[in-house]
Amino acid sequence: MITTIGLLDAYFDCRKRKRRTASAVMYEIDYESKLIALRDRINARTYKPGKSICFVVTRPRYREVFAASFEDRIVHHWIALRLEPLFEQIFSPRTFNCRKGKGQLYGVKMLQSDVRRCSRDYTQDCYIMKLDLQGFFMSINRAMLADMLDDFIVEKYKNADDRDDLRYLSRTVILHCPENNCEKHSPAYMWNYLPPNKSLFTNGEGLGVAIGNLFSQLFANYLLNVLDWYLLNQLGFAYVGRYVDDFYIIYRYKEKLLQAVPKIRELLARYGLRLSPTKFYLQHYSKGVTFTGNVVKLNRIYICNRTAKKFVMAIRRLNRAEIPEEAEHAVSSINSYLGFLRQCNEFKLRRKILQKMEPNAFKYAYIKGPYEVVALKNKYKPRVKTLQRIRDGTY
């Protein structure tokens, strides 16, 4: 039986860093009663996922995103709190997404280290092959994934008190069809830019998981764990890495890399997946390689052009800001990109782009340190504005 304490843990984990969002604020009103009602529905096996929000993003490419209701996200976190420790026991050390301490930067550093080790400190030839899966999330067979995960829970999850609840919720979440109960927040014409196999509405029955939900990333990583160990153990490659559906293999001889491609295709076909025919890269290590938004070259890491353009766009939003709230939002984006660039060899680029700030931008913010942070002026910081309204009696 699922307990109230377990749901409370999931609730607090779910609202972390999201407490100011509208959905979190609304749920926090009498959240104890709502969690008890959710507990009772789960224990009675009458729980059904609620209405999702669906929209289309345009960058870096058109993509359909589903956002589950706040209550459903609590359920996702309840599942994750129990499965993530078990997944960590079986995951390859060379997969980098949805893992604590092993994110995008970790993957880039691993790639750089792999090149150095395979080339014996750049004294011998080696080659980098980078592959991508075609329409990965939309190609996942939900029933197959639900069965695989159910077998995993039966084998690995030892807590008999809520094992059946975990099996029930995992299957319910995976087999849920959010496209049948959603509220579209993008104009209808936006879906015209999506190929039929890129939308849950036209993808085919039983295929695809919703991009945007926690369980999509978590369970997809579990599915591709088979590929990770196949590359390491069956094909014998020591220098491999994967971030979601984007993975690389480094080896001294390109002939062996090419020979591995048909074998990888054969493995993926067993799970209804396939390699992208257009996203294929094989070059000498000296040419560098793009991975997770970075360009990795000899002893240095740069960001890709797409990220630099988005950084410039954030600066332009700050230049156009007419009210403090717009400036605050732009500064948050700018500092996010600065944090990304500080991990690369990009001081000159940081300086060049920050010098595009116009006088209107300095009305709200200023550059702090050697082009490291853009800080809001004190009088525009949310906390200072709130305190001022309290003093004025207008809060």
Question: Which ranges are low-confidence, i.e. pLDDT below 50, for 5 or more consecutive residues?
Answer: none
Largest sheet: 4 strands, antiparallel
N-to-C SSE string, H for helix and E for strand: HHHEEHHEHHHEHEEHEEEEHHHHEEH
The average pLDDT value, as a whole number, equals: 90
The count of β-strands is 12
Tally of individual helices: 15
Helix percentage range = 40-55%
Q: Give the CA-CA distance, first to last residue.
A: 45 Å
Which strand-content bin applies to the residues? 15-25%
Radius of gyration: 24 Å
SS-based class: alpha+beta
Q: What is the overall silhouette?
A: globular
- Describe the strand arrangement of the main beta sheet, using strand numbers: 5-6-3-7
Task: Record the SSE blueprint.
Blueprint: H1 4-15, H2 22-28, H3 31-43, E1 52-57, E2 63-67, H4 70-90, H5 104-118, E3 127-133, H6 136-139, H7 142-156, H8 163-175, E4 182-184, H9 214-234, E5 239-243, E6 246-251, H10 254-269, E7 275-284, E8 289-291, E9 294-297, E10 300-303, H11 305-320, H12 324-342, H13 347-354, H14 359-362, E11 365-368, E12 373-376, H15 382-392
Parallel strand pairs: 1-4
Antiparallel strand pairs: 1-2, 3-6, 3-7, 5-6, 8-9, 9-10, 11-12
Q: Would you give an account of this structure?
A:
The chain is α+β, with helices and mostly antiparallel strands. Helix content is 49%, strand content 15%. It is built from 15 helices and twelve strands. The chain has helices at residues 4-15, 22-28, 31-43, 70-90, 104-118, 136-139, 142-156, 163-175, 214-234, 254-269, 305-320, 324-342, 347-354, 359-362, 382-392, and strands spanning 52-57, 63-67, 127-133, 182-184, 239-243, 246-251, 275-284, 289-291, 294-297, 300-303, 365-368, 373-376. A four-stranded antiparallel beta sheet has the order 5-6-3-7, sandwiched between helices. A hairpin with a 5-residue loop joins strand 1 and strand 2. Helix 4 packs parallel to helix 9. The longest helix is centred in the first third of the chain and has 21 residues, at 70-90. It is globular. The two termini are 45 Å apart. The model has no long low-confidence stretch (mean pLDDT 90).
